[in-house]
């Protein structure tokens, strides 16, 4: 009988594959190992046997069958569960990846394939000089969104090399530590009046080469050169089911790229996943603001979000203003003083801070104990199924988060005809400035669905005050909140952009303007109008935005996008527990909406603020959520993995905990606790 202490009694053969580029050197290396050998020791034995002098520090073992990395080098093979049949590949953790940015430009860079996607995105954003990386994630295009392109371009090749911006030499991409001064809120920006970018710091970020400035401009500047033919080749969702396909491919933030089947040189989309843009600052966020603007622009051009003809013309006018300003600025000699350049940014920044922080202190109500209220004559419109709409004027009183209406002003001291509690309701604008139509559509949750109420205002001022009050009330806030006045001003500003008058010169001589209107509107409107008509209408709308700077035009575009009823909604096809038909679930930053798949009408809304807990039954892939007042829902997701919706809910709750006091630091552990799930 052989003694257990003798050599070879516990050893076994393990075949390892080494991913290297050296010709004439074997890639499959057999080693004799024992179960108590730790992973780090296995690496050492392997490198000693290969006898190739190179830096192996970025290498780690990838377990092919289990689809996992062996990153805990102090664990033994027994603890990892590695046996003789295990296929281990010794490969680099950082690999080349192609990313398509929101501005449709492709960058090629080296990314960690072993880190969780959340961390990988953080590193990518540092490379691209984008703050608040938690708002972005990586998206794999689903098969449904690629079908149209494949049919049209069967013989087309991959994009030419010159179309791809190669950033593989940047510090983060090389796995090197980055100078924190370049990615810090305390850095001193040097403002570039053409691009709106902090030029010196951003350019230093990329490299010291002559192409650095060009690389920076690609990310911080927009290039509206899309043609109708280019738009026609891209995926355009027609229905809610089509829109659901757009959100099916989000990667799991708690797993690595390699674990999710992403290979070296694959192409992914880098997109803003969460529509809560925190602490936008024109001084430091040139690239971030531009990429948000581009994501909004393409969403509108491809009709991923619905907007009216009037709104489409506003978006076209703002794009045209950006385009015209960029051309005029780039043709001028750069002789403007530094002081005037800084003033322009300061103006945009102070304006933005008012929006984010809730207005000037002088606007805050002097006596917060006095509950503000609105009282006006408004028209109430009640849709009738088998008759015309019934329109009648009543005396409306808005107090706290409720609207009460009475027969007239004199009867307001008595009992109201009806009292509507707006907390948790959906507020949808119904406006046509040209037709002097200022309506507010309220979808108020009731036991059996949603109660529709339409209010008609007489003018812009009245509409702005009531609309702002309704928006705040839907979130459970009153007019005493400091954000009320800024909300009123934001609505008035948007209405003002819509309220244009025809300029005789622009109307009579549209051919004198060098503009391709097809670049600024969705295909639906290029089919509806002739080119000259479209140019004239865009120039008509352009009169109200012609004095805006580059930065302001982008910020106004983003603000107008945020004002659209469908803004921030990500759609999924689900089957609710107990239901016999499929519905669409809309996930937003503060609520979930159940939507009828056939009509597109909201059925029920649930606010995150009323949510007590949510969990996932991973065996049957069912999401269950409990709300206040004993309301509970459960559903399975049909258009994507339920983990994506689970992560969306947890992600939005995580983002709601951010504050300026915490500056750039992120509680990554809390993010994974809220989004990771326990599969």
Short recap of the structure:
The protein has 679 residues and is of the alpha+beta class.
Report on the architecture of this protein.
The protein is α+β, with helices and mostly antiparallel strands. Among the domains are: 11-92, Phosphatidylinositol 3-kinase Catalytic Subunit, Chain A, domain 1 (Ubiquitin-like (UB roll)); 372-479, PH-domain like (Roll), CATH 2.30.29.30; 570-676, PH-domain like. Helix content is 32%, strand content 22%. The chain is built from 19 helices and 24 strands. Strands 14-13-12-11-17-16-15 form a seven-stranded antiparallel sheet, covered by helices on one side. Strands 21-20-19-18-24-23-22 form a seven-stranded antiparallel sheet. β6 (94-100) and β7 (106-112) form a beta hairpin. α9 crosses α17, α12 crosses α13 and α18 (642-655) runs antiparallel to α19 (668-675). The longest helix is centred in the middle third of the chain and has 23 residues, at 309-331. The chain starts with 11 loop residues before the first strand and ends with a helix. The model is unreliable at 149-162, 176-191, 193-198, 200-210, 332-342, 353-369 and 502-512 (pLDDT under 50).
How much helicity do the residues have? 25-40%
Q: Specify the biggest β-sheet.
A: 7 strands, antiparallel
Structure summary, number of beta strands: 24
| Major sheet: arrangement of strands | 14-13-12-11-17-16-15
Global outline:
globular
- By secondary-structure content and strand pairing, the structural class works out as alpha+beta
CA-to-CA gap between the ends?
Answer: 46 Å
Number of helices: 19
CATH topology (level 3) name of the domain at 372-479: PH-domain like
The CATH C-level class name of the domain at 372-479: Mainly Beta
Averaged pLDDT, please?
81
CATH architecture of the domain at 372-479: Roll
Q: What would you give as the CATH superfamily of the domain at 372-479?
A: Pleckstrin-homology domain (PH domain)/Phosphotyrosine-binding domain (PTB)
Rg value: 29 Å
Instruction: Give the strand content.
Output: 15-25%
Protein name: FERM1 protein
Main location: other
Family: Belongs to the kindlin family.
Keywords: Cell adhesion, Cell junction, Cell projection
């Amino acid at each position: 009988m052989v003694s257990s202490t003798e050599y070879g009694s516990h050893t076994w053969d393990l075949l390892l594959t080494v991913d290297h580029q050296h010709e004439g050197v074997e890639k499959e290396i057999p080693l004799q190992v024992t179960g108590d050998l730790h992973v780090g020791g296995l690496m050492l034995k392997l490198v000693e046997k290969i006898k190739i002098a190179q830096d192996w520090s970025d290498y780690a073992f990838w377990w092919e069958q289990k689809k996992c990395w062996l990153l805990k080098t102090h664990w033994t093979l027994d603890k990892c569960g590695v046996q003789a049949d295990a296929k281990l590949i010794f490969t680099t953790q950082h690999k080349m990846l192609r990313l398509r940015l929101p501005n449709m430009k492709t960058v090629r860079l080296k990314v960690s394939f072993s880190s969780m996607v959340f961390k990988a995105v953080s590193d990518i954003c540092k490379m691209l000089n984008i703050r608040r990386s938690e708002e972005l994630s990586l998206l794999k295009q689903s098969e449904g969104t690629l079908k149209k392109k494949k049919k049209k371009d069967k013989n087309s090749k991959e994009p030419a090399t010159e179309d791809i911006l190669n950033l593989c030499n940047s510090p983060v991409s090389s796995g090197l530590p980055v100078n924190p001064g370049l990615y810090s809120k305390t850095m001193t920006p040097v403002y570039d009046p053409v691009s709106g970018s902090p030029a010196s710091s951003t350019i230093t970020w990329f490299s010291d080469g002559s192409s650095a400035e060009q690389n920076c401009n690609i990310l911080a500047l927009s290039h509206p050169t899309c043609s109708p033919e280019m738009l026609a080749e891209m995926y355009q969702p027609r229905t809610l089911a089509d829109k659901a396909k757009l959100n099916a491919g989000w990667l799991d933030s708690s797993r690595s790229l390699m674990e999710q089947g992403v290979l070296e040189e694959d192409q992914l989309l880098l997109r803003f996943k969460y529509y809560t843009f925190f602490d936008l600052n024109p001084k430091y966020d040139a690239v971030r603001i531009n990429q948000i603007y581009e994501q909004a622009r393409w969403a509108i051009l491809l009709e991923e979000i619905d907007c009216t003809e009037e709104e489409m013309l506003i978006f076209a006018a703002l794009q045209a203003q950006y385009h015209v300003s960029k051309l005029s600025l780039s043709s001028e000699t750069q002789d403007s003083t530094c002081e005037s350049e800084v003033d322009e940014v300061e103006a945009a920044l102070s304006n933005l801070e008012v929006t984010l922080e809730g207005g000037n202190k002088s606007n805050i109500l002097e006596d917060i104990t006095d509950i503000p209220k609105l009282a006006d004559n408004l028209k109430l419109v009640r849709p009738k199924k088998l008759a015309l709409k019934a329109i009648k004027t009543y005396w409306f009183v808005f107090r706290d988060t409720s609207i009460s209406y009475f027969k007239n002003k004199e009867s307001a001291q008595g009992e109201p005809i009806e009292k509507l509690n707006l907390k948790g309701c959906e507020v949808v604008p119904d406006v046509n400035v040209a037709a002097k139509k200022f309506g507010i559509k309220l979808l108020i949750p009731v036991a059996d669905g949603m109660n529709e109420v339409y209010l008609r205002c007489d003018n812009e001022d009245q509409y702005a005050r009531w609309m702002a009050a309704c928006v705040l009330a839907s979130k459970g806030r009153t007019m005493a909140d400091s954000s009320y006045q800024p909300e009123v001003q934001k609505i008035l500003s948007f209405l003002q952009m819509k309220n244009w008058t025809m300029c005789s010169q622009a109307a009579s001589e549209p051919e004198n303007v060098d503009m391709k209107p097809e670049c600024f509107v969705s295909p639906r409107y290029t089919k509806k109008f002739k080119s000259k008509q479209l140019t004239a209408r865009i120039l008509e709308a352009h009169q109200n935005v012609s004095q805006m700077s580059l930065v302001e035009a982008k910020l106004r575009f983003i603000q107008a996008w945020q004002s659209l009823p469908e803004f921030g909604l990500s759609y999924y096809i689900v089957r609710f527990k107990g239901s016999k038909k499929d519905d669409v679930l809309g996930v937003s930053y503060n609520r979930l909406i159940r939507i009828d798949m056939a009509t597109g009408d909201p059925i029920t809304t649930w606010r995150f603020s009323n949510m007590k807990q949510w969990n996932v039954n991973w065996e049957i892939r069912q999401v269950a959520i409990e709300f206040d007042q004993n309301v509970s829902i459960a559903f399975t997701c049909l258009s994507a993995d339920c983990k994506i919706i689970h992560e969306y809910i947890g992600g939005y709750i995580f983002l709601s905990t951010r504050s300026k006091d915490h500056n750039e630091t992120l509680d990554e552990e809390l993010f994974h606790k809220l989004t990771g799930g326990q599969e």
